[in-house]
Amino acid sequence: METIRPLKLGGRSLPDSDSRILCRNVLLDMLGEATVSVETGDLSGLTGLYWRYVSLSLATIYLPRAHLTVQARGLMDRGVVILRPMDGPLEIKCRKHKIRIGQNDVIFAPADDAMDLVLSQGGRLDLAHLPAHSVAAREHVLTPLMLKPIEAGCLPLQLLTNYAGYMLRQDIQSRGDASMMVQHFYDLLPVLAQHVGDAPRPTTRQTRMDSIKARIEENLANSGYSITDAADAEGVTPRAVQKFFSREGTTFTRYVLERRLANAKSMMIADGAAQPISQVAYRVGFNDLSYFNRSFRSRYGMKPSEWRKLAEEREGEA
Q1: CA distance 118 to 100
Q2: Cβ distance 205 to 149 under 8 Å?
Q3: DSSP symbol at 301
Q4: Given 31, 53, 132, 277, which residue has the most CB atoms within 10 angstroms?
Q5: Runs of H (alpha helix) within the chain
């Protein structure tokens, strides 16, 4: 089975010169060529985590707890970079804008633009790179998020960062699991944009579908959420919503069922045996445990309990 492993980088004994090379190589994939300056001390003992997939790159870098700056030239790729300071505020200068975000808050920025970052207290910096080929069809979703501070308490943001954290923490993943988690990551972007409040109204068939799917994602835990609810929220008829899904070879009901099952599957990976399967089923919108078990087995070829056992065995082998 083809697997993907996050890389654990550096060490406390790593000298400054090697730490700088390590830091440069990680930032090269996220921000382009970059220079790090530390006001006092150096980069000795740098550590971090790095995870790369064809449609998403993630990194956590533990920088010195000192005032430092990062000058980045930007990537050739016209994608998006997400930054989150974990031990203090971050000041970012980009496109003649000067923006300050608080500890644990997040900002989306154009990956191909030069930027200066100031971490007044240094410490941990989380980064994600969304390549151009993955965001091209999502430009209308990402536009309202760009260069806007997003507070850590935002629920869709918490879900997004939880998915990213899971991918970085797992010692080994199959390519199928990685693909599923990355898809969940991208599915949350429209939900985040709508939560922020400036998402544009859909103007084409595809953007309308993105909006409908975002509403479904927000309401998966609501077992009573119906096609009529989605249609009313969009200002269209249930028949129109059904036509949108028909063009994609599915139905509203089947799509909602598959999203609930996918959420349950990933939740059992992330939580292990921390919660009963019945609770997992309830959290993703199933009121009938027998129906959940039948649907899960039909979709994935095994019972939920068998999937959980398999996931635990994979983790134990890592």
Answers
A1: 9
A2: no
A3: S
A4: 31
A5: 16-30, 132-135, 139-142, 155-169, 175-196, 205-218, 227-234, 238-247, 252-271, 277-283, 289-300, 304-317
Please give the chain's pLDDT, 318 residues, in tens.
456 778 888 888 889 988 898 888 889 889 989 999 998 889 999 999 999 888 899 999 999 999 999 999 998 888 899 999 999 999 999 988 899 999 999 999 999 999 999 999 999 999 999 988 888 878 888 888 999 999 998 888 998 998 888 888 887 777 778 888 888 889 889 889 888 865 444 445 556 787 788 888 888 889 999 999 999 988 889 999 999 889 888 899 998 998 898 888 877 765 555 678 999 899 889 999 999 999 998 887 888 888 777 666 555 544
Q: Please compute Rg for the chain using Cα positions.
A: 21
Which amino acid is present at 14?
L
Strand partners for 85: 125
Q: How far is CA 138 from CA 26, 107, 214, in A?
A: 25, 17, 12
Only one residue has tokens 């010692």, namely 171
In angstroms, rounded to a whole number, what is the distance separating the alpha carbons of residues 172 and 178?
A: 10
Rounded CA-CA distance 125/84 in Å is: 6
Instruction: Please identify which residue in the block is written with the tokens 């000192």.
Output: 66
Chain centre distance of CA 263: 14
Q: End-to-end CA distance of the chain: give it in Å, rounded.
A: 13
User: Hey, where are the domains in the chain?
Assistant: 3-196, 205-317
Q: Are 150 and 105 in contact (CB under 8 A)?
A: yes
CATH class (in words) of the domain with range 205-317: mainly alpha
CA 19 – CA 36 distance, rounded (Å): 11
Q: Are 142 and 193 in contact (CB under 8 A)?
A: yes
Nearest to 234 by CA among 207, 260, 254: 207
Report the CATH architecture of 3-196.
Sandwich (2.60)
